[in-house]
Amino acid sequence: MKQQLLNIDAEAKKALEGINTAAELEEIRIKYLGKKGELTAILKQMGSLSSEERPIIGQLANKIRASIEDAISKKDSELKESGLKEKLISEALDVTLPGKKQVLGHKHPLTLVLDEIKEMFLGMGFDIVRGPEVETDYYNFEALNIPKDHPARDTQDTFYITENILLRTQTSPVQIRTMEQKKPPIRVISPGRVYRSDALDATHSPVFHQIEGLVVDKGVTMADLKGTLEMFAKKLYGEDSVVRFRPHHFPFTEPSAEVDVMCFNCHGKGCSLCKGEGWIEILGAGMVHPKVLSICGIDPDEYSGFAFGMGLERLVMRRYQIDDLRMFFENDMKFLSQF
Ligand code: PHE
Fold this sequence. Notes:
Elements: H1 2-17, H2 22-33, H3 38-44, H4 53-90, H5 109-123, E1 127-128, E2 134-136, H6 137-140, H7 152-155, E3 165-167, H8 173-181, E4 186-195, E5 207-217, H9 222-237, E6 243-250, E7 253-262, E8 279-288, H10 290-295, E9 304-311, H11 312-320, H12 327-330, H13 333-336
Parallel strand pairs: 1-4
Antiparallel strand pairs: 2-3, 4-5, 5-9, 6-7, 7-8, 8-9
Helix pairs in contact: 1-4, 2-4, 5-11
The chain binds phenylalanine.
């Protein structure tokens, strides 16, 4: 029996040498030390031994069990260590490799120019305000001195939602909302989307952007309007820009004007950019109609104001020489990635 025990010891140690995995290790543990293992099987035969032999064999068996256990746990930590090493090697990071470049998104051309314009007006002490795109007939027309039968309604083909609710055709309703909420002095610009039921082509879109401006205070005159817009044109088109006011009509301003800048491409001679005119129309403007002030609860005898409105798309098209407005809305990466 002593020899059997010694054999088991030797066999177990030998078996341990040749293994590489935790599963194999567990197999060995079960084979030699498990409840149905070889060592247990021998110990079960202890009953047949004499009382002198029993403690001797018992001691030896315990020693061998302890020694095999020891060898197993040693192997276990060896396996774990080499496993960790392998893992570290296979998962090693080469920190000297160049990183993957993150592609940064960038701003849409409309946003780029709008940001620039916002900065200019913020610098002149204007606030930026916003209004809803779904408007009531009252704010979009009525309060702007455009009653139901007014011919100006025909020029702004309107998307109606109900008889009294519509998609705003201009940013001018924000003038009304601002004057209702704030007492003068008022100095705001309001950029945003507007809608008109125009067919989509190279120069028209049913959705486009306007930037509205409004100043109301005591003693505001047409000279302030001219000064402000001249300053704006110079910042946008360069210090040598020349601005001209042409008489026009808007129901909500009186007097009204359309404002042109001298073509920055040909300096007034006439070229393809200005279609031979020498001038480029950039916006509509005027002195806020006294009726509109009154409607908003502002006394026109005490206060006066000016307003202007411009289309963003046209401005940006000229800036970057884009000849088709549809490009702004098609989200073609080849186009967008140029800005
Ligand atoms: N709302 C006008 C338009 O859409 C532009 C405008 C704004 C004119 C403010 C005068 C004053 O044509």
